[in-house]
Design brief:
2 copies of one chain form a homodimer. Chain A is of the alpha/beta class. Chain A is built from 11 helices and 25 strands. In chain A, α1 runs parallel beside α9 and α4 runs antiparallel to α5. Chains A and B meet through β5, α4 and α11 of A and β5, α4 and α11 of B.
Chain lengths: 424, 424
């Protein structure tokens, strides 16, 4: 064989980037392909949506992160097809690049359960553009209310509905509660922001269903303190420019709300389907590729699907959750596996070591399950703070985010409160 | 008369915001109307365009700035007409608001000398969206070049043309020189960023024509050190998707360039024309409203035009330049005049006290004229740094910008290098 082993990684999220970095000392030529030029720290995206942080503070250019890693190159490009026979990936401009090992880690998008037309009405939170759009809608609603003479319309402008009570929905609702109660408290002359009506709708019987029930109760009472009301077993049946229609058990309720945010469902990236078609792999209902115990595609030991794109059920009998720690761990595992193969060694099957789960609910409040211990309140919040700071990729961003947070904490301000984008 | 004196200020730039703030202790009800929810520190906008700063670091929400000023309220809205007879301004949603004193400070936009179709090809730099679009184009050009097999096309991708050799053009060219020579130096595997071709085109016989000739020469040699070539007496005659055609004296030259940036001309906001139509005031060629010695509109002592929108020629026999210090000083003057009138006093006519002019050309280099003294180099750069930090409106932004600058200085990095916006 001529030349080093060629590893092509598609997607620069947690799974793809950690895989590339962990291959630093491998005798391999790594090509990381992403549609965007940066790695996005998605767990803090809701803080961009709420004006607490700037986009650049949670995004790191992939070139900067991999600049010193001489066996890695970064390509800005969109993969549109795979050719497992020729061992090539195909880009949107027709370019092809060959691989010896292919790692597909293109993540997930939000999902509207067959109601794609809801997307423009209720944006989800996956990209920088999503976050600035949500920020725009939240701030604009208060601005419009300040000049709205009709009390009913003002009420609808000050009603915010968040659909989905998982960690993203809870964190977004908590941030909205803080915006209304603290950040904007004194900034308006007519509107009283604390009177805003913030509703968190969850389809199942409790929010944060991945946490133990006790912590769900705690999170709900923390949200109430921030003025957020939670409705469980609430299924959205209609969503239009005037508001949402919700089925609560037998009851149908209509909520007039100008701002609806979507945190309800995710679906794997469409590249998963393409990969399945090209390799005969199975997809689950969420569009994830069902993988082998070593995260490879059945019948293709050199093709891996990892992160939110993968359905790995060999450990728990059900898929691992689509969270950052799983993605990081799978990226690192595949890198170790590739190195082992290059050195003629065997690697054990993949196993996820759950170090814990965290969710924050505004200033000084969070819930956490770490090493089986359940806790809540300021200590959980400090752990949350520390963990998120430590995993930010660039040192510069850690310093900037720390300063922003300190400012936000002491002044109850949010410095990145800009309404940008297309003129309304 | 019932109620306090109503001052309506249209535009929250330097002129409008400083006017509102200086009216803090006046017995007046101030309404500041702007289409955007933030004050933008335009002198540092080129640093957003070059990825050195984040938008929120140079933008301050108007509500935050005026939050504690109880006699001021902020309206997010677009003024579309004036009714001097009824003493009202009219907003795009049909709302009207009455004034006793009207201050119009809606600034300027870039101007393409009758070639409006050039705008999409060569964006100018006036808004946050302009800056992120320019940042997108600069970074995307390097990214595309990295994957471009054709050497001629790669050359065109790595050719950057900046039209206009005033302070904005010079600062943008200097920043581009630094991006190519320092920031991106080690980030690519095929492209050699220092080989980028950066051209600064100026129509007159020297760049920075508002400065003494010696400093123009100095700035030009500083730019050469950063790899920027200057062409004076260069008039753009054509501008299309492939590049620009330039008339240099008798010679016509064609430059193949994928990225062209516009810093050549500005025109006053269209509200100037509207104001002139409603009051009979004169406009100059750049669309600015010709004002009286006290900055009021002839025949309308209670209507003022200030900042980039005004042509004030009573002091120098020619209009004052459209720069931030003039706008701030005119805003403060009108506030003092209103207060004097409310207290039954007379105010002297407006006079601009020129404290100096500054322009920076990359790391450690700048030119300055302060109190008649001309200087250049690191000292001028430190003065530039200090002045710009001090005039940033929020303390939080001062701290964040200082940290960013320190990082950028020592690491030669630019942390806000994101390609965002519509998918290419």
């Amino acid at each position: 064989m001529v030349g080093p082993h060629r590893v092509v990684i598609v997607g620069g999220g947690f799974a793809g980037l950690y895989c590339a970095q962990k291959l630093k000392r491998a005798r391999a030529q790594i090509t990381l392909i992403d549609r965007r030029n940066f790695h996005l720290f998605q767990p803090l995206l809701y803080q961009v949506a709420s004006g607490a942080l700037s986009p650049a503070e949670i995004a790191s250019p992939l070139r900067v992160v991999l600049s010193a890693q001489k066996n890695a190159r970064v390509w800005l490009g969109e993969v549109v097809d795979f050719d497992p026979g020729a061992r090539e990936v195909i880009l949107s401009d027709g370019a092809r690049t060959g691989y010896d090992t292919l790692v597909v880690a293109t993540g997930s998008r939000h999902h509207y359960f067959g109601r794609g037309e809801w997307e423009s009405r209720a944006p989800g939170l996956k990209t920088i553009e999503d976050a600035t759009e949500i920020r725009r809608r939240i701030l604009l609603a208060f601005e419009k209310a300040e000049r709205e003479p009709d009390p009913e319309e003002r009420r609808a402008l000050l009603t915010f509905v968040i659909v989905g009570g998982g960690p993203t929905g809870v964190e977004l609702a908590g941030a909205l509660g803080e915006i209304a109660n603290d950040t904007l408290r004194n900034d308006f002359r007519l509107v009283r922001p604390p009177e805003a009506n913030i509703l968190l709708l969850e389809g199942s019987d409790r929010i944060l269903s991945a946490f133990p029930p006790g912590l769900s109760v705690r999170a709900e009472s923390d949200l109430i303190r921030l003025g957020v009301r939670t409705r469980t077993r609430a299924v959205v049946t209609e969503l239009d420019a005037k508001g949402v229609t919700v089925k609560l058990g037998d009851r149908i309720e209509r909520i007039h709300a100008r701002t609806v945010l979507w945190a309800a469902g995710v679906q794997a990236s469409p590249l998963g389907k393409l990969l399945a078609e090209r390799t005969g792999a199975h997809l689950d209902r969420a569009g994830r590729v069902v993988v082998e115990p070593d995260l490879s595609i059945p019948g293709y030991p050199d093709i891996f699907a990892i992160g939110d794109l993968a359905n790995f059920s060999h450990q728990l009998g059900q898929p691992l959750p689509g969270i950052a720690p799983v993605a990081m761990s799978q990226g690192r595992y595949v890198a170790r596996l590739v190195r082992a193969r290059l050195e003629g060694r065997k690697a054990p099957p993949y196993r996820y070591l759950d170090k814990g789960t965290l969710a924050t609910i505004g200033r000084s409040r969070a819930v956490a399950v770490i090493a089986g211990l359940r806790f809540a309140g300021p200590l959980a919040w400090l752990v949350w703070l520390f963990v998120h700071l430590m995993y930010l990729v660039e040192f510069e961003n850690r310093v900037l985010v720390l300063i922003r947070w300190a400012y936000n904490y002491f002044t109850r301000n949010r410095g990145a409160r800009l309404i940008t984008g297309p003129h309304d």
